[in-house]
Design a protein that fits this description.
heterodimer; A: alpha+beta; CPE0013-like fold; three-stranded antiparallel β-sheet; 2 helices; B: alpha/beta; FAD/NAD(P)-binding domain; 3 domains; Metab_Enz_Cyan_OpOx_G3PDH (chain B)
Amino acid sequence: MTKKLTCISCPIGCELTVYVEGDDIKVEGNRCPRGFEYAKNEVTNPQRMLTISVKVENGVMDLVSTRTDRPIPKKMLEEAISYIKGLKVQAPIKRGDIIVKDLLNTGANLIATRTVLKK
Amino acid sequence: MRREKVDVLIVGGGAAGLAAAISATESGAKTVLLERDRSTGGVLNQCIHNGFGLHVFKEELTGPEFMERLWEELKEDVIRSNFTVLEIKPDTREVITLSEDGIIVFEPKALVMSTGARERPLNSLRIPGSRVAGIYTAGVAQKMVNIYNRLPGKKVLIVGSGDIGLIMARRLKIEGMDVVGVVEIMPEPGGLIRNVVQCLEDFNIPLWLSHTVIEIHGKERLSEVVIAKVDENRKPIAGTEKVIKVDTLVTSVGLIPQNELIENFVEMDPINRGPVVDDYMRTSVEWIFAAGNNVAIHDLVDFVYDEGKIAGMHAARYALGEKLPEVKYEFVRGKNVGVMLPQKFTGTQPFKMYIRPTKSLEKSVLKFSDKIIRKFNWRIRPSEMIDLVVKNFEGFDSKITVEVSNLD
């Protein structure tokens, strides 16, 4: 199987060609090793980082921005989004604080990406 | 009215301004950074998506994380928020500002302009129809959703496939809006391909290339728009019109560098729409430096940060009495070169150069006066800046023609 992909590991967006033969995966067009990893994952188990905001109570802002600390399976994005949208956290929150540990058993934590002080 | 003498005055507290403040203070200059908003960080505050900092921090961060890292890097308290700069007087080197403390006139030895860019509004597209509620620029929609926890509407069409437009398509979908699609007048997406993949394809949001909005309808609130396919001259093709019922239109149709404060007395580049700069990020006025999206629109905040550091450091050196080298070389745009900076250089140090090709090419070369500087074995696009370090200046005339051409 041959597949054309655009690498999303960084903003350069290398155009990749992936050749899959059984367990053997070959990648062309990547300018760095992350491109190989991306292509391999993309044809076996596509992963995405999720960035989303979470509601805050008693904070100087109504929302805290968060992200998963590692990519999660693409097919779980929808489920993760609806779960996170139901959450509320209490201020103060520090950047890096874990908002959800092991999000839906993905092995990824949802962490705060900014500081929100108490009102 | 109060007067204040400083070594380096920085106007604008986004990524470029914060970076300039870091390097200016590290260089030992008495520095003040003026920010018109309540808090610094600029657009990083509302860019909660990832993709920032890969070059600078070797990590993939979100906008707020990148911003807080810069705050930590800035060891001295030099930030003054809620400050508006009213006027810069080039002859007397005065900067007139307004804040809660009234009018303060700064007398800086060097100035760094890091005022960023603003979004091109919908009205610049000259679309006939009503001017109704429900039309937002992507940045405003982003601020509503990410800072103020408000959705701009229920059903949205996005005009323009710039990065902010693509990112907002995903963001609004995640927040529960019905995102009908993205229309792009050009035959290619305007933003980075990674954003087309992970913002549109992942979320099944259609992208209509060579399409534009030709009519806007609604009474008080937007109720529908008419889109149509365009020909190669970007003229709508009759018979291809399609009515789309939406209550919201989000536009991502480009950024305009903000240079109102200096454009009347510094040399401006009509293509970049920012000041002409050298490798020290110095403008045509020797005490005024510039960095970031006011110089030219950049792809990455990492590039903006690097430029801010350079501008801040050299502004500090100049302010502390060092004589900076004179410009010896000038770049001239040749074939297929759009945005380009710096336009001049001294030939005293290696420096980073940024070039935006004017059209996509499969395989190409970058030439300086017919000498091949770099080969590209991949597709280059107007939406992706080429960045390179220029080290070797020997054997070049004072005018160097820059060209991007097909590899024969």
